[in-house]
Specification:
mainly alpha
């Protein structure tokens, strides 16, 4: 992806993030907001493209990228903190 495309993506993502934050600040259920955002993204993709086999990989790619970024941050945090087991949990 070219730098210009990355900058445009960052700008669009920032606007959607601001809307998401506003919805959460209004007290909306996070799972409802996530479902609505995903539904709108899927609907938009299918309206523009029409081929689910082209739309679904784009949606899953975005989900995968966010999961990878979060897992990387979690791994760094875990490395800094000692491991602990919550009270009442059975470890196998």
């Amino acid at each position: 992806m070219a730098q210009r495309e990355r900058d445009e993506l960052e700008e669009v993502t920032s606007k959607v993030s601001a809307l998401t934050k506003a919805l959460l600040d209004e007290g909306n259920d996070p799972s409802m907001v996530a479902f609505a955002l995903t539904s709108v993204a899927a609907d938009m993709g299918l309206q523009i493209c029409g081929d689910p086999m082209r739309v679904i990989p784009v949606l899953l790619g975005a989900i995968s990228q966010q999961a990878h970024m979060r897992a990387g941050g979690a791994a760094e945090k875990d490395a800094e903190e000692p491991a602990s087991v919550p009270l009442g949990v059975t470890v196998h």
